[in-house]
Fold this sequence. Notes:
This protein is an alpha+beta fold.
Amino acid sequence: MLRFSAFxxxxxxxxxxSAIKFDLEALPSSxxxxxxxxxxxxxxxxxxxxxxxxxGEGYNQRVDLxxxxxxxxxxxxxxxxxxxxxxARLAFSTHADASIFVCFTNTLSDGFNPGPNxxxxxxxxxxxxxxxxxxxxxxxxxxxxxxxxxLRKLEKVVQEIWDEMEYLKRREAKMRDTNESxxxxxxxxxxxxxxxxxxxxxxxxxxxxxxxxxxxxxx
Length: 219
């Protein structure tokens, strides 16, 4: 029963693995980079990530790959030129709590005109955190039983869920503080605007009253 429960929970958290498949049109070198295709996934700091890329067949085309994040330092994790049909498997650990971008460029060879026939199918798989660990090596190194391995996976997944909840909690608190600060500023701005309008209205009434008195239009 415990083994079945562990398997069921692992099935429920399988959404941590992302798989995307799309066609990438080949363009001349002068415009290919400007029309590159990028996929993004937010990943926490110091998290293991494995990106597996499979490229479909295509002639007179070169698919280049670049992986980086959108942190202040813009960390670059991998660059691959001419990813062929053999594909690529890239593993790295993140250096910042940021979004990871996997960008593809399909460059058409010189002398060929772009067309619907010049495109390649890109298949991308993300393995993040617990899904990126090689539990077979861990099991051999620590001599773990299959059930212990499943429990180790569950422990890692639960820890990641907890970290994600803590991250969302911090973001919610930050957004709440920002909203409260904005509301307070709007409130003071409204009060100052109201006082300014009342002051201007009073000044205008007094000025017009003095003006009409000088012209002897009112007593």
